[in-house]
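Protein modeling request. Please complete all fields; requests missing the sequence field cannot be processed.
Requester role: graduate student
Desired output: 3D structure, token encoding
Chains: 1
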Amino acid sequence: MAGKPGVLDAFHAVLRLGSPRRLRRTWIWAREIAGQVRRRRAETRLTVAVDVNSFYEPLTGVGWYLHQILLHLAERDDVRLRLYGQRLVHADPWIPRPVAALPSGPAIERIDYDAPDGLVIRPWRGRQVLRRLAPLLTAADGNQVLFAPNYLFPPLFWLARGARVATIHDLGVWKVPWAVRPDSGEALRERLERTLFEADLFLTPSEAVRRELVERGVAASRVRAIHHGTGLVGEGSTAQPPLPPPRTPLRYALHVGTVEPRKNVPTLLAAWRLLRLRRADPPPLVLCGGFGWQAEEARREIGAAEAEGWLVHLGYVSTEELAALYRGAELVALPSFYEGFGLPAVEALRAGAPLLASDLPVLREVAGDAALYAPPDRPDLWADRAGELLADAGLRADLRRRGLERAALFDWGRAADETVQAFRAAAGR
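Delivered output (429 residues):
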């Protein structure tokens, strides 16, 4: 009959592989996995399953946030942070490796499995089995908290029964839907609705986002605002201060961010054209960051400004170069239509750079009286505020002083401590 030779061949292959030695090795392997699960279930510390999939892409935004939280919790002895990556199979050649080194310390445990050679099934088949069993293995660990640092709970957590905690970094998909890529925005909205329904506790980087969640119907008792620390720019000074990129002008105003609709670069360009009509010596603009989606019109305007000689677009720069740019800027401009926190604002304050920001609740929450503000849709008022700041050395000095004091409020150690407190509250510990 058709197909019989294939069935017989498979049966004979199992017989060949099923030697006593292979059977024994398979039994030992299964017992080792069961032993790991029993050990993890017996842990007396607060146990937290952490989705670390953001470490499998360039470390910006969410990845930096998670890295700093883990780094500042790694040495604690009252919590066990279990890191679950893409599927759990460590040696699977089809799964990418993390692009950032995972933090390590007494509180950190990396969860992964492998199927060694010598079993009754081939290693690739064993890994396939592990991939299919991954949600069950995750659930078996019995973690008290399931932490989704990037809005959504991963499929690995679907069967697990711990308290669910998710960080909602912003609500841009609803607040400024026109500034979100349609292909990703629709999918995120659908999945985010599920997160809002199933999470026990939400963390936000600001009171502004906390209020937005409450306005959306989430109970206030289910949301905690925990401010971030600093961004990619380092917190300390070095013995040899880094130099800015080669094309940096001697005097300049700085904007840091991807050129995309939400960052509102066209308003800044329009304001600078007005400023050039009003003042004889405004410093050129320096833009740091690549081009995002829907950047065609802004790209043309940037090209024209570069040709006219009053703008330099540096694109991506190193962390060291960015630190030097912040320190040397006559002002830092953040004209965003929407932010969930605004790391460039904190970086500017910490560097002692005078800040001109959009008049948004979240940026007033972060910068307070250490910045000047203008509405994001008023280039004329942006030109007014920029001119005022550039003309008044005393005002710039005052904002530098206030900025340094304000920046001291944002600390990753404090953020990590408050995050553990949130985990305990969610778990009833």
